[in-house]
Amino acid sequence: MKTARRTLARHSAKGRKRRPWEPPSVIARNGWRYHHLGIPHAAPRPREQHLDDLGVHVCGFETSPYGIEWMRFEPHCQVPDVVKTVPHVAFVVDDLEEALKGKIILIAPNAPSRGVRVAFILDDGAPVELLQFDDAPPRKTKANRVAVHRAAPDWRG
Asked: What are the helix (H) ranges across 51-141?
């Protein structure tokens, strides 16, 4: 038991290793929310949508129960090669500028469509997309749930 305590004491909250059942720290501590998994591919797929101004074809996001989005890039697409060749995970964040602090920025914040700002960061060689939506509902936090519970009328009458 002392060994386990010493091991935990040795690791700071930042440097502690993630346990197998724990979510990634950006979810557990930072409140980021999973949005999709973008997978680059080369061959056309059924029901692709062409985003002409971005030079990319996408499909699957609206129908995949797992948020898988297939992405096919045109030669003139102006994104870094790592985004064109390596799958990326995407998270919704409450504050894009705050989420980017201290990160390696691969694609600077931009607004590809109305109501959303996106940026890509690089983590250990992998691209990660961050999205901030203007009209996203407030994040459910423990403090919010407690406040709602306290505000609820007493059902016992």
From this structure: 81-85, 96-100
